[in-house]
Specification:
Order of helices and strands: HH
Helix content: over 70%
Oligomer: single chain
Radius of gyration: 20 Å
Distance between the termini: 35 Å
Structural class: mainly alpha
Number of strands: 0
Largest sheet: none
Length: about 80
């Protein structure tokens, strides 16, 4: 379960880095364009970053749920008198 969590976390981080590098490459390519296109590119980069952050949050929630499930599976249930 830990490997799955780590893989999901790494995937989310990679998505964020990919969005950043795509934005940088796109901004270098379109260096001479107007402010409007620059703002549009920045908006698209922010959307990509938000998507990456959402993936990180989902991975974190999934890891937490998996940890809780594994902990509950190991802990015997206690009966109250």
């Amino acid at each position: 379960m830990a490997k799955l969590t780590q893989a999901a976390w790494a995937l989310a981080q990679a998505a964020g880095e990919e969005a950043k590098s795509a934005f940088r490459a796109q901004s270098r390519q379109m260096g001479g364009r107007s402010r409007t296109s620059s703002a549009a590119m920045e908006f698209e980069a922010l959307k990509a970053e938000v998507a990456a952050l959402r993936a990180e949050v989902a991975a974190s929630q999934q890891a937490r749920a998996a940890e809780t499930i594994s902990r509950v599976g190991r802990t015997p249930l206690r009966r109250t008198p």
